[in-house]
Amino acid sequence: xxxxxxxxxxxxxxxxxxxxxxxxxxxxxxxxxxxxxxxxxxxxxxxxxxxxxxxxxxxxxxxxxxxxxxxxxxxxxxxxxxxxxxxxxxxxxxxxxxxxxxxxxxxxxxxxxxxxxxxxxxxxxxxxxxxxxxxxxxxxxxxxxxxxxxxxxxxxxxxxxxxxxxxxxxxxxxxxxxxxxxxxxxxxxxxxxxxxxxxxxxxxxxxxxxxxxxxxxxxxxxxxxxxxxxxxxxxxxxxxxxxxxxxxxxxxxxxxxxxxxxxxxxxxxxxxxxxxxxxxxxxxxxxxxxxxxxxxxxxxxxxxxxxxxxxxxxxxxxxxxxxxxxxxxxxxxxx
Length: 335
Prior knowledge:
With 335 residues, the chain is an alpha/beta fold. It has helices spanning 5-12, 16-24, 31-44, 50-57, 73-88, 102-113, 128-135, 157-170, 186-202, 216-228, 239-251, 285-300, and strands spanning 62-67, 92-97, 118-122, 140-143, 152-155, 175-179, 205-209, 233-236, 261-266, 279-282, 310-313, 316-318. Helix 1 packs across helix 2, helix 1 (5-12) packs across helix 3 and helix 10 (216-228) crosses helix 11 (239-251). The longest helix is centred in the middle third of the chain and has 17 residues, at 186-202. The relative contact order is 0.12.
């Protein structure tokens, strides 16, 4: 038989109400009493009833996570980081996928806010004003997005793009294309800014090629335009787009990296499995998920006294086989 709160109370020599307070609101119980209750609970293998605890604390024990597309391996890795950190704090996670639809995002935020203690919005596509309005009545942390002073965890996209541009410039590439992601993506905007700054600083010519869905098909669609741009290298919005580029370039008989160098972003597991293996800007996906949960839980425990908090995580270029020395310029016909 599973141990009950009555068993713990009897073993610790206190009332059931004291056991409940010691395990759900420990700050209200004297340290010696709390230690006695916790010791008895561990010894008996007692686990509190979450529903009953919620009636006392007003907390659900749940966190909400909204992502744009779970089929993208980037977000799957973020989910693992979020779940690991939440589980360690005895929270469950409700996960919702917006399928890259900003309107669905706002509806999901409103619906989930009623069922969870706090929300994590990962790479949200909704306009700033809508995010601010929904977040006004909820405890919300943003990931891969900054909106005013709303607490957030982001990555250093600008430095990641600088590393990519510097790497290509060192290989002799003077004209680099960027296969852009969705117009509504904050990360895309940050990467474009970082690329422009790095290109201007290093004297590299940057060719902006479209806005494409952040999916394999987006890379396939971008490849022909990249080739038409005259660039000798391309940086893709993410690894999934880069894999689509590799596929279409192969179909057109363009060798990578000697015909065209390709750089991705995110360092998903598949980026090291492609042929050739993909050079990419690595983003700490699971670490970002864990950091976001940590920030959210610190807000939940602060009684609203926590000031604006922003955390930025580093990125790192991973050099693999999809980049090489730029091809020599084609010579004109001899006279």
